[in-house]
Amino acid sequence: MKKHDNLIAGQWVSHGNYQENRNPSDITDVIGLYTHGDAAAVDDAVAAAQAARAGWAAATPQARHDLLEKTGRALAERAEEIGRLLSREEGKTLAEGIGETMRAAQVFKFFAGEALRQTGDLTPSVRPDIDVEITREPVGVVGLITPWNFPIAIPAWKIAPALAYGNCVVMKPAELTPGCAHVIAEILHDSGCPAGVFNLVMGRGSAVGEAIVTHPGIDAVSFTGSAATGGHIAETCGRLRKKVQLEMGGKNPMVVLDDADLSVAVPACLNGTFFSTGQRCTASSRLIVTEGIHDAFVAELTRQMRALRVGDALDPATQIGPVVDGRQLQSNLDYVALARDEAQEVIGGDRLELAQQGFYQAPALFLGTTNAMRINREEIFGPCGSVIRVADFDEALAVANDTEFGLSAGICTSSLRAARDFRRRVQAGMVMVNLPTAGVDYHVPFGGRKGSSFGPREQGRYAAEFYTTVKTSYVFAG
Ligand SMILES: NC(=O)C1=CN([C@@H]2O[C@H](COP(=O)(O)OP(=O)(O)OC[C@H]3O[C@@H](n4cnc5c(N)ncnc54)[C@H](OP(=O)(O)O)[C@@H]3O)[C@@H](O)[C@H]2O)C=CC1
Ligand SMILES: O=C(O)CCC(=O)C(=O)O
């Protein structure tokens, strides 16, 4: 069985303590062994990053571009193979795994371009004979902590801007999905990334993650994951005066109005709610449907949901892969049990026993629910959606906004006026009209409001806000 080590100071380093990476479609399938570092490994990685910091900050835009472009090209060339690894370790379908790998490749290529497009401002002072120059500099050494649900895209959209803007990186991937992050580390290493500029430390969140967040040599932390861990990291970073960026949960509303086209609304809801096994922070978990279309919508969505093929992620016929692990599956099943108490009706949601030993669950629809129910307030993160019946647009908007989260929100309607009103008044960082709430572009800002996000936006040119710090210089020319 192949052993995979951490990348520290340009060397592959074993810390022993190899953990099995298992396939959630078939838990007898061990993908590989991955070493687990600890706080001492983080010390070494931070020391390497600090040593490399001045050199990388001074590297030419061309050098940064070339590294990122080469990495993006390698990911694209190997998309089939890496997508297969992704589906094997995380459980999303092969098409989704390959698609996510291509997205990671595009993210690296986008930020290769951004490395060449960094600009500043030169402006006259309010005083005579003085020029003012406003420039952006790297933040320094950034700690990146990533979740299991997008094991290659999320690392990519944190690593690429960090390196493009001249930072050094210490990264910890989720324990459940170290494989894709390890592949990025291999590609960066083989593409000539200078020693110490990018460091990978696999290990437990409570050990390696904590050590990254609290280490005095880490200047900023970017995290994606649960609201609980994000809140803890925000408190620590606040106390230590570190820059922090958090992407956390969602309870995303999808409003379906009477005038919606069912041939648009049902596929949008099916995709947003169930695809990627519902394991997306942008998933449509609350389907808010007006009276006139409610019954027809529920009938068609139920029909299409029941037809979804749940199975091995690597089987090309599979539409919904397994849940990522036994703990997440048990949590989903607990929510289905809760829905049986709270909702008027529950369709699907049971554990499925297939030929392989995997964590399979039938998609679930909860009918006759209200927004006050726990199933509509807490993030489930599984293939489960609730339908909330409302009278009209105003009630739909009020219900959509009545949540502690604010990541993505959608509306299906044929009315330009309703769509415009919704876009302006919904409290979310991203709004979709006649599209699923999940599935975003790689070149524009990603992030939310309220309990979903904290700090500057990720992705697109807005990523510069987090990965750079502004300097204002005054020059007397007199
Ligand atoms: N917004 C999103 O995209 C995601 C949301 N979630 C939500 O979170 C729930 C639980 O998932 P889970 O994977 O446990 O999420 P976590 O928030 O625990 O994990 C996210 C990342 O943070 C790390 N981590 C854990 N504890 C700490 C800590 N004290 N300090 C620093 N880093 C830490 C994890 O490491 P390790 O893997 O080693 O524990 C992982 O790399 C899901 O059911 C879902 O609701 C989960 C994933 C993504
Ligand atoms: O919906 C998407 O495309 C991205 C979702 C995401 O980033 C997440 O679930 O963490």
UniProtKB/TrEMBL annotation:
Residues 17-472 form the Aldehyde dehydrogenase domain. The active site is at E247. GO terms for molecular function: oxidoreductase activity, acting on the aldehyde or oxo group of donors, NAD or NADP as acceptor. InterPro entries: Ald_DH/histidinol_DH, Ald_DH_C, Ald_DH_CS_CYS, Ald_DH_CS_GLU, Ald_DH_N, Aldehyde_DH_dom. Keywords: Oxidoreductase. Signal peptide: none annotated. Pfam families: Aldedh. PANTHER family: ALDEHYDE DEHYDROGENASE-RELATED (PTHR11699). This is Aldehyde dehydrogenase family protein. It comes from Thalassovita mangrovi.
